[in-house]
């Protein structure tokens, strides 16, 4: 147990977890602490060895699999990460964080399972704005633009100051030839950002 907590502290420093994943890390009484003092350098070396040892000793420790999957993800080992998050789900079928993490990886890997995973994360955690955002992106890849707009709209409902959500929704509206709607979303993003790094006004407000 102490080893897992120690590794979680290190992952905080490595910026591995999204805010949602941080809030979801309550596996088997393991608490996620935000202090980053005096921790092992998990991201560069021996953390995986410690986790491998812990998992061999405690093969049903969902928290250990989640942390190891997060390290694999951070290092770009998508297949290994997905296997660990799948094991978490087997052990804890209602673990929203594991579905969310696996869904993000499936999206990055262009895997069709991304929407199913992210939908399950949303079912278990209905106010997870990031899950809606990633699912919206997955729907864009599928060219299901109406579903994508619905997802980005939900992100905006949950996070009214999320400029990126307005940008993403504006892009989808532009694909659907809703140029006025795209311009309005682009203008709102500009209002929130205070700048126009993507040239969205020039692109959408002709």
Descriptive report:
The chain is built from twelve helices and no strands. It has helices spanning 2-14, 19-24, 47-57, 62-75, 78-91, 96-108, 114-124, 129-141, 145-158, 163-175, 179-193, 200-204. Helix 1 (2-14) packs parallel to helix 4 and helix 8 packs antiparallel against helix 9 (145-158).
SSE topology sketch:
Layout: H1 2-14, H2 19-24, H3 47-57, H4 62-75, H5 78-91, H6 96-108, H7 114-124, H8 129-141, H9 145-158, H10 163-175, H11 179-193, H12 200-204
Helix pairs in contact: 1-4, 3-4, 4-5, 5-6, 6-7, 6-8, 7-8, 8-9, 9-10, 10-11
Summarize the entry for a quick read:
This protein is mainly α and 206 residues long. 69% of the residues lie in helices and 0% in strands. The chain has helices at residues 2-14, 19-24, 47-57, 62-75, 78-91, 96-108, 114-124, 129-141, 145-158, 163-175, 179-193, 200-204.
Assembly state here?
single chain
Distance N to C terminus: 59 Å
Which geometry do the CA atoms define?
Answer: elongated
Structural class: mainly alpha
Give the overall pLDDT as a whole number. Answer: 81
Helical proportion? 55-70%
The amount of beta strand, in percent, is: under 5%
- Cα-based radius of gyration, to the nearest Å: 19 Å
Please give the number of β-strands. Answer: 0
Give the helix tally: 12
Q: What kind of sheet is the major sheet? A: none
* Strand and helix order: HHHHHHHHHHHH
List segments where confidence is low: pLDDT < 50 over at least 5 consecutive residues: 1-44
